Structure prediction request, 413 residues.
Amino acid sequence: MKNPSVIIPIPVRYALIVFLACASFGSDPVDENDPVESTQEDVVATFTPLELAFRAASALPEVPHIKTRCRLQEQVALAYLQQGKATQAKACIDQISNWRRGVGYADIAQFHIDNGYAEKAEGFVKLALEICDQPRSDSDQAWRRGRILGKAAAAMIDLGRAEEAQVLAAGLESVEVSPVHMAQLRKLKLEDKGQLLARLRRAVASGQFEEQRASLTAVCEFQERHYGHPGVLRELEQAIRDSWGKMPAQVRLGLILNLGQTAQKNGELKDAIRLLQDGENFMGGLDWRIEDEMPWVGVYAELRAASGDAAGAKESLRRAMLRYIAGEKEIVNIYRSRSLRPLAEAHMGLGNLELASEIYAQALEAGWVNRNSRPRAEDLVGTICSMASSGFVPDAKMQKRLETLANSLGSPW
Prediction:
C-alpha cells in the first residue's frame, strides 16, 4: 500500500567518481542471501520495463531539458530501489549529470542502512559527498548542494556518526535539513515522548512548514513503533490532530492515511475505518482538480480494502473512474495519464488485474495526446514506474506498445 503524501519520503539519483564507484562496489563478491544486490550479469541479461523507462528518460536532450531528463532518470532509479534492486538503481544514478546524482547516492546509502547493510552505505555516503566537493559554476545554487548534504548527514546519523552529521548540516536551510531532523527524531525512545511532543509544539509555533512537517511525520512514526501502548496511541493521535490545522490539505490527508495504515497493520480495523472515513470526509469538502484528487482516492481505497471493506473500495474506484470520464476534457492533456495511474495501482492492490490492465492501457494513450516528446516521455516513464511499483507485468501486446512509444520519442520536444 502506497502513500502519495510528500511527508513520507517514500521520491534517487560520473569520470573519476564513476571509476571510484565501480572500484568500490562493482567487484564485490555477491552474497546470495543479500536481498538488495544482484550480479552485473543479471542487470545486462534481464530486460525489464524499467530499462525501457530509463531509455525514454535518457532520450531527452540535455540542452535544454537537463532538469527534466535528470528528474526522470532519478524517478526510474527510485523505482528500482523500491523493488530492492540497488545495483540497477546505481547504474541509473551513475548516468545522471546534475546534482541529483549526489542525492541519488545518498538515497542508496539510506536504502542499505534500512536493509541492514551499513558497511555498503558508507561508500555511497562518500560518493554523495564527492559530488558536493566537485567544482561548481557561479550559476550553481546552494540549495542543490544542501539537498545532498542533508540526506548524507541523515545517513550518517543512522550510521552512528552524529558529530560528523552535525558538521555537514550546519547552515542548511529548513528544507535541506529536514532529513536530518527526521533521523534525529527516529532515535527517540518511548520515554522520550514528552521531548517529541515539545518539539512538535515548537514547530507549530514557529510557523515553519518543513519543521512542522518533519515533526508531524516523526510523531506518526513514533506512534507506529510504540503501537502496543494504547494511552500513548491516543495522546499522539490527538497531538497530530491539534497540530495540522494550518497544514496543506495533502499533508493532512497524508497524516490521516498514515494513522489509518498503522491501525490496519496492527489489526485495529475499526480504528482504520474510522480514520479513513475522516480522510474521505475531509476530501469531500475540498474543491480540487481531478488530477490532484485521484492519487488520494486510490490509496484510501486500498486502505479500505485492507481494512475489510473490499466492496466499498471497489465502489469508490468505480465512482472515481466515472468522475474522470465525465471530466476528462477539462483536464489539461499532460495531466490525464497521471490521473489514471493511481486508479490502476489501486486495482492492483485489490487484485483486480484485468481492470488495472485496462486503465494502464488508457494511461499510455492519454500520455500520447500532446504532440511534444517531453511530456510524452514524462508520462511514459511515470506509467512504467507505476506499473513496477504496483507489481503489474504488461502482457506481450502492451510490451510491444511500450517499445513503440519509447522508440517514437524525438523532435519536437
In short: Residues 1-187 form one domain. Confidence is low (pLDDT under 50) at residues 3-46. DSSP finds 21 helices and no strands in the chain.
